[in-house]
Design goal:
The structure holds two protein chains of two kinds. Chain A is built from 21 helices and no strands. The mean pLDDT of chain A is about 90. The termini of chain A are far apart. By secondary structure, chain A is mainly α. Chain A is globular. In chain A, helix 5 crosses helix 10, helix 7 crosses helix 16 and helix 18 packs antiparallel against helix 20. By secondary structure, chain B is mainly α. Chain B has a domain of about 25 residues. Chain B is built from one helix and no strands. Classes of the chains: A mainly alpha, B mainly alpha. Chains A and B meet through helix 5, helix 9 and helix 12 of A and helix 1 of B.
Chain lengths: ~500, ~45
């Protein structure tokens, strides 16, 4: 066990727990809006950074580095879209979603869908799908956090997992969304410092980017191309486009991410938050992929590509800085896990328990039900993570593809298309989720050269348009919803 | 640039440049948004 690394981690945990206590003292648990949305008083900088750090999970330190190491510059197709993901999300739906959700009193991203597309089936299907998918996603983050902690501290996996999950649970339980947003803010700064530090050290080691590229060309010139090792993806524009779309417009379909819009202090917050998001992304998003690419030169015999960033850090940085890098990795994992946990708990409490089991529950009761469900999901996640189901980490990418495919047209059309109605949204969600799932499971991506995200999104969009238009007479959009859409589109009262 | 093929250079530097431009245009066309006062919205 390395004492310096452990000290960094302990310091990091103390800070995030301190933020949790601070959020609780600021009244985060006084009412349901306070617990689930931080009282809708989150400013632009925190909005931007919680949105970005929630979107960037432990995948950025494990998967992104591995992709760069294995496929070279082809990996940057994913970064290409990701850099604009925040500003696209905020510019397209941020402001209108904030206004519409407050006008209709929606407190969760699923309740928002039901207020726009009134039907208990919407809440049941969307809530059930989200709780399941986010549950799998949070489980994968727990496993990654436990493994990372065990690796650097030398603790047994079960104990390391308990520490990682316990810290996340405690501050989420105490401070709700306010704690999650402000810990995400802190964690996003740690992530930036950590990853940029490794990248600078790696660039110095290889003598600059030009020298690194010349060295890579000597090993395998195809790694410098946009089509991957051995030109394995040559001409597959459907895959490349899907890679760009999954992390650019795909975010607009992620329920745990779009909740950030609803918590902004005012609709115009989306404007400056968009600029901050782009600034953070320009520094962060491409860097883990780049470190993976540089690792081809630094560690050509690396056994496990997922360890590329860990190994480069261990190889090049002094111990104290390795501790900071480890904190950055934990920050990436925890900033996603806390949002997933809170979102899953809030949907289970507000959209399933209160909607279908106990509609008469008071505000105070619901805060405690939300806390209880966060705790329950965390404990169940811990127990399942102990056995480390082998397929869980592998399905993260298509969990995000399914979320984007299922919900993107519903969220987008909610504020932009007045003809989008309940049958259209229902069929769109079910079709998008099914097509993306089947595409991935059956392996249609390699046969058709079409990314599952692109296939799922295409089908859900088509379903939304066709079914909404076909059912306008039998299921027209209610006048009060049209009025709220009009109000949400107005700027400055005009 | 940096001994990369042209297509890779476009991928590495073209997309970030596009997003910077997108953000600047977004800030310009939405400058009226600031007129939405925080206390203007009616709570349900």
């Amino acid at each position: 066990m390395n004492t310096t690394v452990v000290l960094f981690l302990v310091l990091y945990y103390v800070v995030v727990l301190g933020i949790g206590f601070w959020a609780m003292r600021r009244g985060a648990g006084h009412d349901l809006e306070g617990f689930l949305l931080g009282g809708r008083k989150i400013g632009p900088l925190v909005t931007a950074l919680t949105l970005q750090s929630t979107s960037m999970s432990g995948f950025m330190f494990l998967g992104a580095g591995a992709l760069g190491y294995v496929e070279g510059y082809w990996a940057l197709w994913y970064a290409a879209g990701d850099i604009g993901g925040g500003v696209v999300n905020l510019s397209v739906i941020g402001r209108r979603m904030r206004k519409f959700s407050q006008l209709t009193g929606a407190l969760t991203s699923i309740e928002y869908l039901e207020t726009r597309y009134p039907s208990s089936a919407i809440r049941l299907i969307a809530g059930g799908l989200t709780v399941f998918l986010l549950g799998v996603y949070v489980l994968a983050q727990f496993i990654a956090g436990g493994k990372g902690m065990a690796l650097v501290t030398g603790l047994p996996y079960s104990v390391a997992l308990l520490v990682a999950v316990g810290v996340i649970l405690l501050y989420t339980f105490l401070g709700g969304y306010l704690a999650v947003a402000f810990t995400d803010f802190f964690q996003s700064l740690v992530m930036i410092v950590g990853v940029v530090w490794i990248a600078i050290a790696a660039l110095i080691e290889v003598g600059g980017l030009g020298a690194a590229n010349r060295a890579i060309a000597e090993l395998d010139p195809t790694l410098l191309s946009v089509w991957g090792r051995g030109l394995g993806y040559e001409g597959q524009w459907g895959i490349a486009l899907g890679a760009v779309l999954i992390f650019s417009i795909g975010y607009m379909g992620w329920p745990h991410v779009v909740t950030r819009h609803m918590a902004m202090e005012r609709p115009a917050t989306a404007r400056r938050a968009g600029a901050y998001a782009t600034g953070w992304n320009l520094l962060f998003v491409s860097t883990p992929y780049l470190v993976g690419i540089l690792a081809i030169v630094i560690l050509p015999e690396l056994g496990d590509p997922e360890m590329a960033i860990f190994e480069v850090a261990g190889h090049l940085l002094p111990t104290a800085v390795t501790g900071l890098v480890m904190a950055a990795i934990m920050a990436a994992i925890m900033s996603t896990a806390d949002s997933l946990l809170l979102q899953t708990g809030s949907i289970a409490s507000r959209d399933l328990y209160q909607r279908f089991v106990n509609p008469e529950a008071s505000e105070r009761q619901m805060v405690w039900v939300s806390r209880g469900l966060v705790l329950l999901i965390g404990v169940v996640g811990y127990v399942v993570a102990l056995v480390q189901p082998p397929t869980v980490f592998g399905i993260i990418i298509f969990v995000t593809s399914i979320l984007g495919s299922a919900f993107l047209p519903a969220y987008f059309c909610a504020v932009w298309w007045k003809k989008a109605n309940t049958p259209g949204a229902l069929v769109s969600m079910v079709t998008g989720a099914t097509v993306a799932l089947v595409w991935e499971l059956v392996g249609l991506a390699s046969v058709t050269s079409l990314h599952p995200m692109l296939a799922g999104l295409g089908s859900s969009t088509l379903a939304m348009v066709v079914v909404s238009l076909a059912t306008q007479r039998v299921a027209p959009v209610a006048p009060h919803i049209l009025a709220a859409m009009d109000e949400a589109s107005l700027v400055g009262g005009r | 640039m940096f001994d990369l093929p042209l297509s890779t250079t476009l991928l590495v530097f073209g997309f970030p440049a596009f997003w910077i431009l997108y953000t600047l245009v977004f800030l310009f066309v939405t400058r009226r948004w600031e007129r939405d006062a925080p206390d203007k919205e009616d709570r349900p």
